[in-house]
């Protein structure tokens, strides 16, 4: 199908939600669930840190909400928009819940490339694309222009993490109580 201007409007909302997540101290991911009539039914942002729950991905909370608020047909004809391609946990839940199309601003491959370029170490769980988890699902993305915006959010996140780590080390050493070995 390809990404339309209408899709980009929803993706921009996802990026705003991702920005809210980052401002709150969470990873910058945001998602929007839209029904077949184009109505926004549910939105969320990453809250893994603020909720202290590793499953609080916005794509996962969309699944939980949709299962109790939408019929099977409504789920199948809906679209989930997201700032970043689903992880395998969210992809699996999406597939099992019978949700429809996914449109993402940035891909798993891009995210992994950015992590490498930013010097972030490898992840504990291997990242794989949605299509490897749910092969028959209609998926569109990434969008080059919007992916660049998402990258900036991740750069800001990881630069802040590096600064915080450097400050913690500096304070410990300068405070006289710590010693680097």
From TrEMBL:
Gene Ontology terms for molecular function: catalytic activity
BP GO annotations: nucleobase-containing compound metabolic process
Gene3D superfamilies linked: Cytidine Deaminase, domain 2 (3.40.140.10)
UniProt cross-references to CDD domains, sorted A to Z: nucleoside_deaminase (cd01285)
InterPro entries for this protein: CMP_dCMP_dom, Cytidine_deaminase-like
Superkingdom of this protein's organism: Eukaryota
Record-annotated CMP/dCMP-type deaminase domain positions: 5-126
Name this protein carries in UniProt: Putative deaminase
Organism encoding this protein: Pseudallescheria apiosperma
The organism's taxonomic lineage, starting at the top: Eukaryota, Fungi, Dikarya, Ascomycota, Pezizomycotina
